[in-house]
Amino acid sequence: MQNKKLLLLSLILAFITACSNNNNNNFSKYKNKLQQQTIKLGYNVEFTNNIFSKIHFDDSYSFNDQKQFTKKQSFNQYYNNAVNNLRIKKAKNKLQEHHNLLNNIFTKYQVQPEYIIALFAIESNFGTKTGDFPVLNSLFNLAYEGRRRKFFEYEFFAALKLIKENKLNPNKYEGSWAGASGQCQFMPSTYLKYASDYNLDGKRDIWHDKEDVFASIANYLHQINWNPNLPFGYEIIASPELISYSKKIKNKKISLATLTKKFPINIIQKTKLNQIELTEKVNLITYDGRLFILFNNFHVIKEWNNSNYFALTIGLLAEKIK
After folding, report:
1. 263-301 as b/e, with b when 16 or more CB fall inside 10 Å?
2. Which of 115, 128, 245, 276 sits in a 20 to 30 Å window from 59, CA-based?
3. Cα gap 106→160, rounded to integer Å
C-alpha cells in the first residue's frame, strides 16, 4: 500500500513538472516573439533587452483574471464595500480642498467636480492605493494567458510608448494587477489618448500631480461625450408597477416625459426633474429592489469601466458628495 502511494505521488509530481516545463517553454517562445516585435517597432536593442529582462512567468495574473467570473455579489454588497460615511466625508473634504482647481477644470472640460472626485475616490482611494504590481509583467502575463490576448498585447506596446515618452524607470512603473496605473488608474492606451498636462509643466503626470490627475479624468469623460447638463441618473422609489415595467422594457430606452406620464416618478433625493431631463431618453434598471432611471452619462461611465455596479456606484457617490 505504501509503495502504491509513493508511486502515485511520484506520477503526480512528474505530471506537474512536465506541465510546468511545457508552460515555461511556451512562455519563452511567446516572450521571444514579442521581443522581436518590439525591435521591429523601432525600439533599440538595449531598451528592448532591458524591458524583457523584467518579464517572467507568474500564474497569479491568470488566477486574478479568472476570479472576476467566480466572485458573486449583489449590488448592495458591492456598493457598501465601496461607499461608507467615512469615504463620503473624505470626498466632500477633497471637493472643498480642490474647489478652485475643480471649477477651473469644469470650465475647460465641462465635467462636474463631484464626478471627478467620485472616480478619484473609488479608483485609487484618493490617490493612496495605486497598486504595486509591475505593469509590464502584468500586461505581458495577461496577454500570454490568451483570454484577451489582442487587448493586452495592445496595452503592452502602449506601455512601452508611455515609458519612452515619460522617461520612466520600468522598475518603478507599477499599478494594478490588470495594468492600470496612477491616481486615476489609466490603462496605458487610455493614458496616451486622454492624460492631460493641465499645469503645462511638460509632463502628463497622473502619478503625483493632482492637477493632471483631475484634468485627465475630466478630459477622458469629456472626450467620450459627457453631458454637463445631466446627472448620471436618479434612484427612484421602486413601486411594484415600475419594477415590473422596468423588466418589461429591459435594455430599451424610453422618453422620460413619456415615463412620467405613465407612472409617478418619486426621486429619493427629492430632486425635481427639469425640462432638459424630461427631453431625454432613459433606461430603467433594478438591483436588490432598488430602481434607477439612467441618462446617457451612466453609459459614459461604463466606457470607463464596463460594469453596471461600478457606474451606479460612481453616480450615487457623486450625488452624495455634491
Report:
1. eebeeeeeeebeeebeebebbbbbeeebbbbbbbbbebb
2. 128
3. 32
For Cα atoms 110, 180, 189, give the angle at the middle one, nearest 5 degrees: 65
Averaged over successive runs of 10 residues, the pLDDT of the chain (322 residues) comes to 52 42 78 97 96 94 76 91 97 98 98 98 98 97 94 98 93 95 98 98 96 98 97 95 92 94 90 91 96 98 97 97 92
- Global model pTM greater than 0.85: yes
Contacts for 88-93 with beta carbons within 8 Å, 24 or more apart?
Answer: 88/317, 88/320, 88/321, 90/121, 90/126, 91/117, 91/118, 91/121, 91/126, 91/317, 91/320, 91/321, 92/321
Longest CA–CA separation in the chain, Å? 82
Distance CA 18, CA 24 (A): 10
Print the SS3 string covering 198-222. CCCCCCCCCCCCHHHHHHHHHHHHH
Cα–Cα distance between 52 and 128 in angstroms, integer? 29
